[in-house]
Amino acid sequence: MSIIKVKTGGITADAITATEIADNAVVTAAINADAVTDAKIADDVVGTEHLTANEVDTTALGADAVTGAQLADNAVNSEHYTDGSIDTAHIADAQITTAKLATAVLTGATDIGAAIADADLFLVDDGAGGTLRKSAASRIKTYVGEGLFTKITGTTISAGGGVTIQNCFNSTFRNYFITFERIKCATDGANLELDPIDTNGNQTDEHCYQGLFMGKAQFSNNWSEDNGASYTLMENQGNATGEHFSGFLYAFNPNQAGSSEFSVTWQGFNHHNGAAGRNGVTWGGGKTATNTSAYTGFILRMTSGNINSGTVAVYGINDPT
Amino acid sequence: MTKKQVHNAVTGISTMVDLTTEEQTAFDNAATAHSNDEINRQLKELRYQRNKLLVETDWMANSDVTMSSEMTTYRQALRDITNGLDTAAKVNTKLEIEDGEYKNFPTKP
Q1: How far apart are the first and last CA of chain A?
Q2: Most Cβ neighbours (<10 Å): which of A86, A120, A134, B40?
Q3: What is the pLDDT, as a whole number, of residue A179?
Q4: Cα distance from A159 to chain B (closest Cα, Å)?
Q5: What are the tens digits of pLDDT across the range B17-62?
Q6: Which residues of A touch B19 (CB under 8 A)?
Q7: What is the pLDDT of residue A55?
Q8: Torsion angle, CA of B67/B72/B78/B84, rounded to 10 degrees?
Q9: pLDDT (0 to 100) of residue A276
Q10: In this prediction, what percent of chain A has a pLDDT beyond 70?
Q11: Backbone angles phi, psi at A270, to 5 degrees
């Protein structure tokens, strides 16, 4: 076959068509740089073998082009999360277990700094079925039953001519429980008295009561008044080392003025004054014929000399109704 | 001036305040009266105990019962137990207890 050489100027533009080019005749040297455009590449013909390793960069990926299918299992770790970017929508239900909670969730929390109030909330597992519910602290009282007593106040007695407890009786509670712990007197043989008072710190009501002491050697003593200025809880109290009065008193309706509204009953252990000393039990009770005004507190004192020491506490009795 | 303790249940605060003049007078008078009345308090106790023992044997004075001379002496000794007790210390001696009994009381026959 003869070869005809044609000078480049001898071929007009666009004169050579694809039919004049033999199969596999065009070599890469005959193609200009950047001459092959997207249009010259058929769909789906570029395979991974034509990509240089590490050559595909993020600009070659369309937005949202990488799907879950393009990620290997367990390939995404915490370094790929932007700080603070994981929200609750990305945590499946019931997936946070106690093991995922730091101990400091409890130990590092700030103490409530006050008594638990009705409105405070607790987390509970409703019916142990795994459903967490909130519960107001007030519901605990319903479940366990409200305590019988609510402490109102208490004080350690400093030596003096008496102890006045102000503002311990009010409309919150109808009845009260008062404790007297190791009440010691300065003067041997003095009586321990309780005197209810109104908001002005006094009253002139008359009290009717009966007290009884039973001690060693079948010793007993009793005392009473029909129109007493105060209630005598213990008569002839000893003041030797270790001798004291410890007991309790129920006060009914102190904050209600009127006829026979206020009454008391008490019981205690004490040391009756005597040559050999007498340990025994005191109890008694009484009422006030008419409280001319509501009582808001009381005075505790000896009929002679100081009260030297002891503690007094007042509790309101919760009304179960 | 004697002080008294005032405790406010609302604030939980206790303060020591002087007794008023009237309270101080009553406090002092009570102390004096208490001191002066010591022997009477002790005698009251002594009589109370004595009377209990007398009551225990009152039934022996019934007309259909013959009381022994020992019992008569015992009851008379009980009635006389306060004789000569002119100080509180003497009364306390009568009220001394030993092994659960009044050791200086007459012995019951």
Answers
A1: 124
A2: A120
A3: 98
A4: 8
A5: 999 999 999 999 999 999 999 899 889 888 988 998 999 999 998 9
A6: 161
A7: 87
A8: 170
A9: 55
A10: 97
A11: -160, 175
| Diameter of chain A measured on Cα atoms | 158
Say how far residue A215 (Cα) sits from the centre of its chain: 48
What's the confidence (pLDDT) of residue A321?
60
**CA-to-CA distance for B60 and B72, rounded, in angstroms?**
9
- Domains and their CATH numbers in chain A: 113-143 (no CATH), 149-317 (2.60.120)
Most A CBs within 10 A among B1, B2, B4, hence the mutation to make, goes to B4
Distance (Å, rounded) from C-alpha A120 to C-alpha A111?
13
Nearest CA in chain A to B44: A221
Q: How far is B4 from chain A (nearest CA, A)?
A: 5
Q: Give the pLDDT of residue A159.
A: 95
pTM more than 0.90:
no
Do A261 and A202 form a contact (C-beta atoms < 8 A)?
no
* Furthest-apart CA atoms within chain B: distance in Å: 71
